[in-house]
Amino acid sequence: MKTVITLFVVLTSMFLAGCGGGGGGGSASTSSSTTVSLDGIGSKGLFANADVQAYEVVGGQLVSLGSSTKTGSDGSYSLTGLRTTSNPVVVKLTVNAATTMLDETSVGADGKFTVSANSPPVGTEIRSTLPDLTTNSEAHITPFTEMAVAAAASSGTLNSASLLAGRQMVMDTLGLNPFTIKPVNANATMSTDQAKMMLLLTSVAQDAKTACTGDPSGVTCAVKRLTDQATLTKGTDGNFAPQSAAALKTKIDSNITNVKTEITAGRISGTFANNVKNQTISTTAPTSVNPTTAASMASLEGFVNSFRTGFNKTANSISTLAKATQTRTKDIVLKTMNGTASNIDAALRNCLSSQGLVCAAGSTFTKVSENNYSFSGKSLDSSMDISGTISGSYVSSTGALSLNLSQVYKKSNTQTKLFEVNSTSSGTGIYADSNSVSLTLTKLDLIGYDTTAGSSKWVKLDLSGTTFSVSEATKTFSLNGGLMVITNEGDSFSGTLSASGKKIRSAPNSSTFDWAADTAALSVTAKSANTLVLGFSVDATNDLTNYYPKLAESSNNVQKGTFNLTTQFTDSTKIVLTGSKSNLSDKLISITVTTDSSWVSASGTLTSQPNGAEDAINSDGLTVTSSGSYSAVIKKGVTSNLMKGTTKVGEIKSDGWYVDGKKFVVEPLTLDLGIETDIFSTAVVASAVAKKDEAVVTTTTNTITCSSSVTTCQK
After folding, report:
1. Terminal-residue alpha carbon distance, the chain
2. According to the model, what pLDDT value does residue 161 have?
3. What is the arrangement of strands in the sheet containing 51-58, beginning at the earlier edge strand?
4. Any idea what the Cα angle at residue 705 is, between residues 321 and 330, rounded to 5°?
């Protein structure tokens, strides 16, 4: 089963430790040894070289938090070393003389937005807000986040209650969360929520083309036309009532209609334009906001936001490094180690004689010269042709062996080269009836190729120094050693590998035996372009009791076992995945995700589905807990209760989740770790030792040359 771990369930239906919702207006927070970062994108379109400054709100006034920074060419900003505060925070983007702005209504030949001919006037400000700043956070800055701050100010003062009300009013109106949905360039791959957000920003860009006195860019007027309708009044009951709810909805709907008309008419064209045109945004005239409800929503959002920040920072390393570490090496470790061990085993069985290294007549080996043979054949599943040479020396009286093995693996149907293997091994006790065999791989280089047409990518796995010991007396084996993986893309992985196993019958009452691994462990440190990105460790066990590997898995022949994977990123993001299997149809799974000091955990049972469909969570649902007191049991198609301790505080429905009847708006996060979670067919477990009755394979040898620095390899 290939499971893509989708954190929509884990991160957007998850709950989410109380991050406060903000204090509001007491005193400035005192300096702490703990500092945090604040990141985001400034866009209407993307602003480059604009000034960004964070402030905490104290007594209705803005007090600077840390130093300012400037946005990058992609509109991104990062404020670091900020002191934590439980007060609400306002982030202000200010246009300066060097600021440029992209135009969402114009896409260039490179597929990206073009630079607008006019930037907003120097001093133009657009703001965003957060309920507090107690952990690494993210806040994007757009005209729609400006609406929230402007609405809060219109109520008479900036404080926690008014800012929370302004945020909630904007999210209720849009049905989206503009504070957490990342604006992107036209050529980016967009989630559905991002496409909707970009439709909204493009509609403002189109509206900005209307004449605007004093601002050729039209931005200040377009933003003002929005904020003029985003006003709040605080009532005697403490709630905040929108003063122009219908007008606000009408203005946003009108902007959307106008830009879609322009796209339909072909005046705005291209893939991006068609993508956003096809989005549907169901705006709502906002109703009165209860600040207590808004605080509860913000508390949940704050937790999600801290996760979002951590994952956005590691998104590239997760998608490239985790996949590179596991997917790129998966086939090499599994198929090539297994084949190498098989061929070494065949050499031991067929080529060791009292005369030395002499391969028996009638075997798959062909003599080339003294102590030098070639071989050919197919892999066990017939998907690969394998060819190679074997040479060395053997002393039958002591069982001392020196063996050099070179192999080439090709797809049987296309003859596309898949792997090359070069190994040098030495051993003792290798003779008939020996009760103790030791085989050391003094060199084992495995080089695998990307089979995509035109690709020159390769990956090299070095298991030199690995010791492989077999005891016929106890019918057990062990494998221990180090490993190094290098790719032509600048990735490198180093670590340790261990495995152990025993001989088991191929089938009930069979006279033939197979070697099978019952424990395996792998620990790796990964670097990308020489920068440390992650460390991961994986261990697995197989319960081989009453299991026969040559028979199809069934209710009477179940491959039972456990699997544990921990991936640790350098920015404190950690993913722990565990699994176990004790019967044919069910696998228990658990995933815990930690970013900084917050964590979310989900566990459940995956049940096999008919017709080869992906395994699915069973009817008991997914149990979710967090580092706060929020929890829930999520079941498909069933409304679930969102609990805070023993108190119900909301509901999780098929279309989202709700607090006090209000829909909580947050952009889903998905993450494909590229992990094979069929935990009992893992590369490490399956690769430890040859199967005694596996056919040995061969054709003619192709050579590979790698420079000493292993920076280039040529077929």
Report:
1. 33
2. 94
3. 61-70, 51-58, 89-94, 125-130
4. 30
93 has a pLDDT exceeding 50: yes
pLDDT of 487 reads 73
**Phi and psi torsions of 485, nearest 5°:** -120, 130
Residue 671 gets the label, from left (phi > 0), alpha (psi -120 to 50) or beta, of: beta
121 in a structural domain: yes
Q: The tokens of 374 are what? A: 């070639």
How does DSSP assign 619-655, residue by residue?
TT-EEEEESSSEEEEE-TTS-EEEEETTEEEEEEETT
Structure tokens at 449: 């190729």
In a domain, 573, yes or no: no
pLDDT digits (tens, 9 = 90+) for 245-291: 999 999 999 999 999 999 999 999 999 999 999 999 999 999 999 88
**Pairing mode, if any, of strands 622-626 and 662-664?**
unpaired
Q: Is the dihedral of CA 304, 309, 310, 313 positive or negative?
A: positive
Strands 47-48 and 476-487: unpaired
For residue 332, give every residue at least 6 positions away whose Cβ sits within 8 Å of its Cβ, in sequence order, or none: 419, 446, 448, 459, 461
Determine the pLDDT at residue 419.
78
Task: Say how many domains are in the chain.
Answer: 1
CA gap 418, 683 in Å, rounded = 17
Within a domain: 423: no
Instruction: Tell how strand 137-138 and strand 35-41 pair up.
Output: parallel
Question: 180 near 310, Cβ under 8 Å?
Answer: no
What tens digit of pLDDT does each residue of 347-389 get? 666 677 777 777 776 567 788 888 888 888 776 567 778 888 8
Token output for 673:
């770790």
Q: Does some domain include residue 107?
A: yes
Residue 144 belongs to what domain range? 44-305
CA distance 451 to 248: 55
Q: Supply the angle between the helices 143-154 and 160-174 in degrees, to the nearest 10.
A: 130
Q: Which of 43-47, 438-442, 537-541 is least confident?
A: 438-442
